[in-house]
Amino acid sequence: MFSLPYLSICIYCILQLTFLTIMDHKRRNIHFIKEHYFSMLLIIILLSFVADILSSLYLASAWIFPLAAAGNYFEIILNTLLLPIFHLYVCTQISDLDVVLKRRINSLLWIMAAICSMIVLSSVMNKKVFYFDEAGIYHRGPLLWLPMSILFLMMFIIEGFIINQRRKIEISHYKTLLLFLVCPIIGTVFQFFIYGLPFTLISITFAAQVVFTNIQNRSMDTDYLTGVFNRRSLDHHMQHKIDTATNNRSFSALLLDIDNFKLINDGFGHYEGDLALINTTKLLRNSVSPTDFIARYGGDEFCIILSEDDSSALDAIVQGIYTNLREFNKNTKKPYKMNFSIGYAVYQPSYGRKAELFLEVIDQKMYIEKNSHKVAHEVEE
After folding, report:
1. Cα–Cα distance measured from residue 323 to residue 376, given in angstroms and rounded to the nearest whole number
2. pLDDT of residue 74
3. pLDDT for the residue 296
4. How far is CA 313 from CA 284, 310, 341, 361, in A?
5. Range of the domain at 301
6. 8-state DSSP, 58
7. Rg of the chain's alpha carbons, rounded to an integer?
8. Per-residue pLDDT for 265 more than 50?
9. How much is the pTM?
10. Are 87 and 158 in contact (CB under 8 A)?
């Protein structure tokens, strides 16, 4: 129902979404497909608001009534299409994604979206979902629950997928992705019982702002190629861990270098070198906890800050990385084998209270490891 408060809320949300769209366009990398998915989400939400405003004008002049009626149909269909696209966006945030699982779930979501859309469009003839009486007044139909149930089921499928893949998603991203659908679920329940305000779209707008802040706008803190944190973030996080470390609770860190990375670049091209860096990132993510901090230290070097403060536990993690590396080399069809040199240590106050001092400690340990690999290789020859 059209009212000044309703229109004010819609205009405010549209301005917010327009601002997010402009800001996302300025900072996005067009080579990353996930950037396109987020832009598509914003555009669909914007169009949904336009459709919702049109649908509220059903008591206006006769010439605008067809647009108002069409707005009701388009809004539900747009909200339905939002879900498969959001699932694709979620998939871009998952490391080592099972492609078959992704394809099956997305196919299921598109089929459900098509069924929901057909049910909504059928209401033009049978007036079962919603309809307008002879006076042009909007009424909910007896089968409105059917497309709404399909929408809820699609949301729960995506939420279940996110929960199932939680170990492969960065922890802060995981919480944000879960929230994206929790908000509209709550908003839809409110809108079902309190008619007159677009609670669903308001909640989706809020969720989009959270995603933009916690995921999209993290590009300042992340490495362009690999998606892990950059050196700037590493220095800040390392210093924070040092500042908060106590005698009873410390942390650990490791520095990893890809051996003979230049040979991969020179022998197989920079594209293959980039793939080696990306594959290393995936391997590291699968070797440590989602809560551990992974950053690209520079070039072919990576640093991981872990919550472990026990030397034996840290040894086990490092050995796990080497085990996963051997498995990767065994199963990969690459024309080269990757090798790592890793330096690691549990932080101690004797290392100093500056991040660069502790990084220097593990950097030296890493080069000792690298030199031992060179000696072993020369002995083999």
Report:
1. 19
2. 87
3. 94
4. 16, 5, 19, 19
5. 231-380
6. T
7. 26
8. yes
9. 0.67
10. yes
Give the pLDDT band (50/70/90) at residue 33: very low
Asked whether residue 209 is assigned to any structural domain, the reply reads yes
How crowded is residue 295: how many other Cβ atoms within 10 Å of its Cβ? 25
pLDDT digits (tens, 9 = 90+) for 38-86: 889 999 999 999 888 887 776 556 666 677 777 778 888 998 999 999 9
Mutual angle of helices 33-55 and 65-91, in 10-degree steps: 160
Residues 55, 200: contact at Cβ < 8 Å? no
Residue 30, domain CATH: 1.20.1070.10
- Which two three-digit tokens encode residue 15? 């301005």
Place of tokens 């089929």: 111
Q: Answer yes or no: do 275 and 162 share one domain.
A: no
Residue 269 makes CB contacts below 8 A (sequence gap 6+) with none
Residues 172 and 123 in one domain: yes
- DSSP for residue 165: T
Residue 109: C-alpha distances to residues 42, 112, 147, 149, 277 (Å): 19, 5, 13, 13, 33
Closest C-alpha among 249, 94, 60 to residue 163: 94
Handedness of CA 239, 285, 273, 379 (dihedral sign): positive
DSSP code of residue 60: S
**What pLDDT, on a 0 to 100 scale, did the predictor assign at position 227?**
82
Structure tokens at 144: 């409105």
Terminal CA-CA length for the chain: 81
Q: Report which secondary-structure segment, H or E, holds 341.
A: strand 340-346
Of 347, 339, 349, the closest CA to residue 374 belongs to 339
